[in-house]
């Protein structure tokens, strides 16, 4: 019997989008429950550890976006072909988190001048640092992050970049040929293409 899925998250791509990409890829129907920021205080206590995304699978709440994505990857046959390849996928996904956390500094800063400096250094230093390395890895691995074939790492990275590019207001992937080709490949997977066409349009 088909599983039921309900994703609870803010009305953003953010950490919810990779889960939505993977569910779409797997052909799973899911309830995409989005709430406004002012609804959050009333909902927070109902989440297992007070954070979202939370994915209810057959009515059971699961949390931690990367753990959920890894689980969905197993369900939808998007893991690597060996423990070694799975390690490569995990390393990339965790590295994207490091990259993303650099961008999070912008939100934590309240001083407008410092915010501006953080944004400048993200664009001038952080983006090229990570993107040049990702690009080289994808080039070396035949157009994918791991072993020349589609894994959840590819889908995860492209999904995270969807909101990171909106947030930084720069389509930074366009400057990196191999990453651009990978992004195009993932965004043209029929199920993901159709999700992107129908998803609510958000700032991040
Ligand atoms: N490591 C967690 C982080 C979850 C997280 O920080 N979620 C944020 C939204 S992106 C949240 O729930 N913020 C509201 C709060 O902490 O009250 C994951 O990957 O799921």
Radius of gyration (CA) equals: 17 Å
How is the biggest beta sheet arranged?
4 strands, mixed
Report, as a whole number of angstroms, the end-to-end distance: 34 Å
Here the CATH topology of the largest domain equals: Glutathione S-transferase Yfyf (Class Pi), Chain A, domain 2
Ions, cofactors and other bound molecules: glutathione
Figure out the total of helices.
8
SS elements, strand count: 4
Topology pattern, helix = H, strand = E: EHEHEEHHHHHH
Structural class, judged by helices and strands?
alpha+beta
- Which range does the strand content fall in? 5-15%
Unreliable residue stretches? none
- Average pLDDT, rounded to a whole number, is 97
Portion in helices: 55-70%
Identify the overall geometry: globular
Instruction: Count structural domains.
Output: 2
